[in-house]
Amino acid sequence: MSESKTTTDHDEIRQWAEDRGGRPAAIRTKGEGGILRIDFGEPEEEFEAIEWDEFFRIFDENNLAFLYQDETGGGKTSRFNKFVDRNQKG
């Protein structure tokens, strides 16, 4: 059974992403920052590669948490992730 976890730990997020070949990215918006994503190399024109420092600045400024899975229900390495409000329950 796959289990989702939530963290705000920068090192844990970075390690999870890099273990799966992921890199920090943003989709730029009209305001400051942008919408954060982990880019796994699939062609997505709107993704802009950013450095981890900028990624975590946006992450913290927007009071985000990282929701992720280590493995799929079948036991394979999972890339499932999304960003949620730190104050969101469940």
Shape: globular
What's the tally of helices? 2
- How many strands in all? 6
Helix-strand makeup class:
alpha+beta
Gyration radius over CA = 13 Å
Q: Can you list the strand order of the major beta sheet? A: 1-5-6
Please, how many domains? Answer: 1
The SSE string, one letter per element, is: EHEEEHEE
Beta content: 25-35%
| Terminal CA distance | 18 Å
Can you give the mean pLDDT?
A: 89
Biggest sheet architecture = 3 strands, antiparallel
Low-confidence stretches: none
Q: Which bin fits the share of residues in helices?
A: 10-25%
Biased composition (Basic and acidic residues): 1-22
Organism: Mesorhizobium wenxiniae
Region (Disordered): 1-28
Protein name: 1,4-alpha-glucan branching enzyme
Your description of this structure?
Residues 1-22 have a biased composition (Basic and acidic residues). This is 1,4-alpha-glucan branching enzyme. Residues 1-28 are annotated as: Disordered. It is a single chain. The protein has helices at residues 10-19, 52-61; strands spanning 4-7, 23-27, 35-39, 48-49, 64-69, 81-85. It has one domain (4-84). By secondary structure, it is an alpha+beta fold. The model has no long low-confidence stretch (mean pLDDT 89). The strands form two sheets. It has a three-stranded antiparallel β-sheet with strand order 1-5-6. The chain contains two helices and six strands, in the order E-H-E-E-E-H-E-E. Helices cover 22% and strands 30% of the residues. The two termini are 18 Å apart.
